Amino acid sequence: MQRPEDQRIKNNARARRRREELKVLNLCGSCGKAPRTSKYSCDACRVRSRESQKRSIGRAKAQVFEAYGNKCNCCGEVNLKFLTVDHVLNDCYLDRYTRGSAWYRRVLKLGCPKDRYQLLCFNCNCGRYHNGGVCPHVG
Ligand SMILES: [Zn+2]
Ligand SMILES: [Zn+2]
Ligand SMILES: [Zn+2]
Predict the structure, then answer these.
(1) What residues sit around ligand 2, an ion, with C-beta below 5 angstroms?
(2) CB-CB contact of 78 with 49 (8 Å)
(3) What is the whole-number distance in angstroms between the Cα of residue 18 and the centre of ligand 1?
(4) 50 C-alpha vs ligand 1 centroid, how far in Å?
(5) What is the DSSP letter of 27?
(6) Residue 98 has pLDDT above 70, yes or no
(7) pLDDT greater than 70 at residue 45
(8) pTM for the full model?
(9) Cα separation, 34 vs 43, whole angstroms
(10) By the 8 A CB rule, do 124 and 74 touch?
(11) Residue 50: is it exposed, middle or buried by C-beta count within 10 angstroms (0-12/13-18/19+)?
């Protein structure tokens, strides 16, 4: 009976060995077929991983936007292209280590707290920033 942990370590070791072999052969570390054009992968795999990353940002982002009502919390703007997540407490510094999809996934994990984040359009977001923390719409 093998513990999942042992299995994982074994798989990791195997994957590492495989990557080493591919490196020697100068083949892509992901598909193992095409010659590598960057440090780890071939052009096709690089494009593919960039796209899958973009897709996963899109999914997490959509879930976060949904949780916050898909509209600007101040003026009610519903065009998603204008919307951004605003840090209610201006605690951006807490998030500086996570970016992109990891950041959105973290907000999801936190349960999308309404007292920490809100959706604002760029207008209200900027307005708030330039007006001492309150959107000029409000006062
Ligand atoms: Zn490849
Ligand atoms: Zn707005
Ligand atoms: Zn506003």
Answers:
(1) 72, 74-75, 77, 121, 124
(2) no
(3) 14
(4) 13
(5) B
(6) no
(7) yes
(8) 0.67
(9) 9
(10) yes
(11) exposed
